[in-house]
Design brief:
Blueprint (H helix, E strand, L loop, with lengths): L1 H16 L9 H5 L1 E4 L4 E3 H7 L4 E7 L4 H16 L3 E7 L4 H10 L5 E4 L9 H5 L7 E5 L5 E6 L4 H10 L2
Parallel strand pairs: 3-4, 4-5
Antiparallel strand pairs: 1-2, 1-5, 3-6, 6-7
GO molecular function, one term: oxidoreductase activity
Protein name: Redoxin
Organism: Flavobacterium croceum DSM 17960
Length: 167
């Protein structure tokens, strides 16, 4: 009987870990303030609510990040292949001016927000979304549910497939 109970516990633990990319945003992350391009603030929750009913692709990036810049052509292809999705770029740049210059230099089309935190990725917003690498991609479905919580620049096929499955 102990072996059966132990086996069930192990299977349950494994099944809860395998294949699960979806994760809800924490209350703390939803309260985080983002700076808009016109230097106003909006909470992460308000930004998400603004797009309820639409598929959202969130890219956390920075203009100084080589992997982020290298992935830009793939992001643009993803945008072209998914015109019904909203693309939100959240920057971890160190200054407002560098962030704005990065948007222009890389000709990023979408909504833009900046995390104004001197600790950058290790700051409050980064901790609250489990940020360990950029670029980082998160996909949210039309109902506001996170369906892909952690994807990186090598997973564009997975991101595209996830978006296509949300139609």
């Amino acid at each position: 009987m102990k072996n059966i109970a132990l086996s069930i516990l192990i299977l349950f633990s494994l099944s809860s870990c395998l294949g699960q990319d979806d994760k809800a945003f924490s209350k703390k992350s939803l309260q985080e303030k983002l700076t808009t391009t016109d230097n106003n603030t909006i909470s992460f929750k308000e930004m998400l609510k603004k797009h309820k009913g639409k598929k959202i692709v969130i890219e956390v990036w920075a203009s100084w990040c080589g992997d982020c810049v290298g992935a830009m052509p793939k992001v643009k292809t993803l945008q072209a292949n998914n015109p019904d999705a909203v693309f939100v770029f959240i920057s971890m740049d160190k200054t407002f001016d560098k962030w704005k210059a990065g948007i222009e230099k890389h000709e990023l089309v979408g909504e833009h927000y900046w995390v104004n935190d001197e600790k950058g990725m290790k700051g409050s917003f980064g901790k609250n979304i489990d940020l360990d690498w950029i670029p980082r991609y998160i996909v949210v479905d039309k109902s506001g549910k996170v369906v892909l919580y952690r994807a990186i620049e090598t997973e564009f096929d997975k991101i595209d497939k996830t978006l296509k499955s949300l139609n």
